[in-house]
Amino acid sequence: MRTAFYVSDGTALTAEAFGHALLSMFPVEFQHTTLPFIDSEAKADKVCRQINQAFEKDGEPPLIFHTFVNETLKQKVVNCGGISYDFLDQFVGSVAQQIGVQAEPKTHRTHGVHKNYNFRVDAINYALDNDDGKKLNQLDQADIILVGVSRTGKTPTSLYLALQYGIKAANYPITDDDDFEHLDLPKELKLQRHKLFGLTLDPQRLHEIRSQRRQGSQYASMQQCQFELREVEKLYRKEAVPFINSTHFSVEEIAAKILAKTNLQRRRY
Amino acid sequence: MRTAFYVSDGTALTAEAFGHALLSMFPVEFQHTTLPFIDSEAKADKVCRQINQAFEKDGEPPLIFHTFVNETLKQKVVNCGGISYDFLDQFVGSVAQQIGVQAEPKTHRTHGVHKNYNFRVDAINYALDNDDGKKLNQLDQADIILVGVSRTGKTPTSLYLALQYGIKAANYPITDDDDFEHLDLPKELKLQRHKLFGLTLDPQRLHEIRSQRRQGSQYASMQQCQFELREVEKLYRKEAVPFINSTHFSVEEIAAKILAKTNLQRRRY
């Protein structure tokens, strides 16, 4: 298997995003190796040795996706013997010409601590404090309130919205303590109806997920999953709560779909 | 202010990563607009209208970073009148030639639900269950155990490691209930000493963070922060616990540094 290296004098997150997106277009598996914080000549020399070892082992030159700010270190890595892809270099001249401003590369500009950083930490704390219906007296501070039956992805989505975008997401479970035959929202949620967003799943998928937790239980049974999902979707429609079926979506996709369907303002780009 | 658009028939996360990294090299502010899931001609037409409105408003053509799988939709957006940057297109031919395989673009390959997806959800649940020293009987399942005094970033880092990499991170607070004069680790942590990783901060920063929570308290006082940090760093050294000072780092940078300093295996790329 051929090796792909992601190398940078910063976190290498941008090199990874770039390389992964590019390689994911090919029906081929790669061995991935990320080498962040390569910020000295000694470290760059060590990278060279790793690249050469992979070359020998694979019998093919590794692909190297890199985003260096330091030009000397970049040249060292470029000259190591792999196939080098530098997407910043490829586009920076064109952007400079277009906007009429010269580039001033600095490390930590992309993934460093910016003026919006505290928003994210506040949003994470908010998501934790308001996970799983723990509190109903802070919902006025929420940017969005995710609702859904147990195990439909509310918690990971809330945390992702907080970490990635600085959005304060509370979540509230429609649980099996509720009377599903006469399902209604608590009055605290009705007061914030404009912030509600529902998650749902295909019954088969919910059955699988719940079975991992409580194999053979009534809670995990196909019949119970079908029943709860049917009733909760009826509730969403009755209360005009927008919702998505997240069966085939990752947390990134769910979050992006929520942003696309609402007017939520990101606190971070 | 000039507008930058991030447009895709998928989540647009890749277009954002690419565009943000590129624009962050310039000392210029942009108005950012992300338009994900542009998967029909009607939606592409609406994108065109938005691009043209921004052009009129700004008096300058917007920059458009896009990653389309659908060629027809891509052409529509490219011909809208902005300045178009397509980094996949720029590199895909070179990679295809290098590896001798043709590209087969599909949506949802980069940010979809992959075989490693359940690892991430399991890791998030683990991080929540084992946050803040809640449980000491599941530490054998941890990939890493973050330790530190209150408010040094253990929880956001644990959640980020889980969401981003599928790594199971527990965290344990060295709290003001502990006897800081005779600081020691509980025996459950000593048994897992090889998994411990410490976080620390500059006293001034910790003082600021704690003051936001409990203004004027003993807990937030500069003296207390200095004392706790000095003692906990002494403990790290005594117990040979690797640690980093995260004062100037974002959660992405802290996580990348931890991965670089340990042999933690990511469960996701």
From TrEMBL, chains A, B:
It is an enzyme of class 2 (transferase). GO terms for molecular function: ADP binding; ATP binding; phosphotransferase activity, phosphate group as acceptor; protein serine/threonine kinase activity. It catalyses: [pyruvate, water dikinase] + ADP = [pyruvate, water dikinase]-phosphate + AMP + H(+); [pyruvate, water dikinase]-phosphate + phosphate + H(+) = [pyruvate, water dikinase] + diphosphate. The keyword Cell wall biogenesis/degradation does not apply. This is Putative phosphoenolpyruvate synthase regulatory protein. It holds the Pfam family Kinase-PPPase. Belongs to the pyruvate, phosphate/water dikinase regulatory protein family. PSRP subfamily. Bifunctional serine/threonine kinase and phosphorylase involved in the regulation of the phosphoenolpyruvate synthase (PEPS) by catalyzing its phosphorylation/dephosphorylation. Its EC number is 2.7.11.33, 2.7.4.28. ADP binds at residues 148-155. It comes from the Bacteria. Keywords: Kinase, Nucleotide-binding, Pyruvate, Serine/threonine-protein kinase, Transferase.
